[in-house]
Amino acid sequence: MAVDYGLYLVTDSTPAILGEKTLLDVVEAAVRGGVTVVQYRDKHRDAADMIATAKDLLKICQPHNVPLIINDRVDVVLAANAQGVHLGQTDMSPVVARRILGESAIVGVTVSSLSQAVTAVEDGADYLGIGTVYATPTKRDTSAVIGIAGLKQILARTPKRGRQQEEAIPTVAIGGINAGNVRCVIVKSRAADATLNGVAVVSAIISAADAKSSAQQLSRLVNGSIYHATDKPDQIMEVERLIGQVDGIIRELGNRQPLCHNMTNLVVQNFAANVALAM
After folding, report:
1. What's the average model confidence in pLDDT over 139-165?
2. Under 8 Å CB-to-CB from 210, ≥6 apart: which residues?
3. Based on CB atoms within 10 Å of each CB, which residue in 52, 60, 140, 256 is the most buried?
């Protein structure tokens, strides 16, 4: 099953995140807005309730060809006929999960270090959830906040899979990602021959007043249709090139003689005054 991991929604049913909305309504709106994978995560409900909710979520996801992944609970995956399971470092081994669920199931693993990523690839994981990128209140048992630097290191050095090690394992960043930082995460984590396949979000959609609009905005950002200043780091001027343009810029200002409003402070007032006079 080919999976688009671009915009991966992890659910949270706690009142502090979900508020007075219903989980099913939020997920349906999010899927309509462009979410490509849904992970049902609930650490507090019993198996019967989780199975019932998972079946309802499946009815929402299936018409849109959106896979439903269950966090931790292989039993719920089997009972609800969901597409797969996502495992943490203290959960069942991916090897055992695969044995129970079969080869067609999606098995994802959370990793926060290179050694964990290597092990997950060797154990046959279908994708990696890498993080936590930024600290977040939605997951209190965070083992490590790795930042973008840690994310990039894992992306760059995670081994490829396959007999010839020619296939990169899909990767999703998770932890504190929202519309304000998603492009930064995607662009700045790029390695020489590795880039993220998607981002996982929780409160950026679950807490939003309009889940559909939030999903639409995030989808556009993930797919690059909204330009961000960090999208083309190769076009950022080097210091030397910028300094080399100063003389020409000042001469052009002198020729055009625009009205300049010079705002300064006591620290640089003399320097600023000299620049203004030079123009």
Report:
1. 83
2. 29
3. 60
Give the C-alpha separation, 224 to 211, whole Å: 20
Angle (CA) 233-235-241 rounded to 5° is: 120
Cis check for the bond before 132: say yes or no (omega within 30 of 0).
yes
- Give the tens place of pLDDT for each residue, 79-118: 999 999 999 999 999 999 999 999 999 999 999 999 999 9
Rg of the chain over all Cα atoms, to the nearest angstrom: 24
The CA distances from residue 111 to 13, 44, 84, 102, 127, in Å, are 23, 23, 17, 22, 10
> What global pTM score does this model have?
0.81
Cα(144)–Cα(138) distance, integer angstroms:
14
For the CA atoms of 41, 45, 46, 52, what is the dihedral angle to 10 degrees?
A: -70
Looking at the chain, how many residues does it have? 279
Whole-angstrom distance between the N-terminal and C-terminal Cα of the chain? Answer: 64
